[in-house]
Amino acid sequence: MAKTKSKTSPAAARRAKTAAPAGTAPAIDIGLSTAERRKIADGLSHFLADAYTLYLKTHSFHWNVTGPMFNSLHLMFETQYSEQWTALDEVAERIRALGYNAPGSYAEFTRLSSIREEPGLTEAPEWREMVRQLTVGNEAVCRTARKTLKTAEDAGDDPTVDLMTQRLQTHEKYAWMLRSLLE
């Protein structure tokens, strides 16, 4: 007797692949492999750590700026940290959408960030040094965004490419605006 080949439709094959017992979540099947999702989530975690560290620094400088540029910088820093805060949530939610936990502790951010903490608990830097540090910090965020964007682009992850493109535009603009204050 000849064997007959089972004719399973592609849709049925996908359903079988992602089928899970009642009460459990199906496997993630968004068109990216587990390895691709892991690599992108790792890049986004580093980006989130850099962005959060920069957010904290910008907020701290908003509180502690003094001198003849006080009003202008106080307002500029507030505008920047407020926008950064909203963006942090979008990045963390993208990590979750890829199936991984977003880092959320100071220890994790310190380990993952390329931006190092500066002393400042007892003495804040003068305004020019604040602006310099924020310029350098925004550029660091840009470098991490570019790496993550490249990883996402290689995997065909358009939502992450879009998110990183938006963040690049914002942080490049912040770096330019801050640098202009020092020229």
Structure description:
The protein is mainly alpha-helical. The protein has one domain (32-182): Ferritin (Up-down Bundle). Helices cover 70% and strands 0% of the residues. It has helices at residues 10-18, 34-64, 70-97, 106-112, 127-155, 158-182. Helix 2 packs across helix 4 (106-112) and helix 5 runs antiparallel to helix 6. 31% of the residues are buried.
Outline of the structure:
This protein has 183 residues and is mainly α.
Please describe the biggest sheet, giving its number of strands, its sense, and whether it closes into a barrel.
none
Number of strands: 0
Order of helices and strands: HHHHHH
Number of DSSP helical runs = 6
- CATH architecture classification: Up-down Bundle
Query: Globular, elongated, flat, extended or rod-shaped: what is the shape?
Result: elongated
Query: End-to-end span in angstroms?
Result: 85 Å
- Nearest-angstrom radius of gyration? 22 Å
- CATH topology: the name is Ferritin
The secondary structure category is mainly alpha
What's the average pLDDT?
89
